[in-house]
Amino acid sequence: NPELTLATTRERDGRGEPALRTVTLGLRIPFGAGDRQAAAAANAHAEALDLQTQLSMERDRIAGERDAAHAQVGAARAQLTAAERRARLAAESRGFFDKSFRLGETDLPTRLRIEGEAVEAQRQEARSRIDLAAAISHWRQSLGLLFE
To answer: Domain limits of the chain?
Structure first.
């Protein structure tokens, strides 16, 4: 904090002479050389180091989330590929068993079982598409991108 000082003095040059009065005005401005300033600087430096450590840890965490989200996208794509293949094969099987049923070579319970498997394969394919879209959305968010 700046300090303002005011002093008055009285002087006489010799006996019998009138006294001279002087007023002295002083202004002291500290430029950060005090102990309080050094302590505040040390505290600020310690806080800066702490924040840098937190920033580094947060960056590592975000990078880990981003990598995990990217891996999840890859897994979801592989799962979708498998589900599409299963649905395609189930549809082919359904066609073969439908034709076989119409020709009287397959019984009704077998045809219904194959039909149920085909429907389940289609449902799983649709679910895999949704999971892939969710994984891509999560990955984009981890990259800091906005929704499309």
So the answer is: 72-143
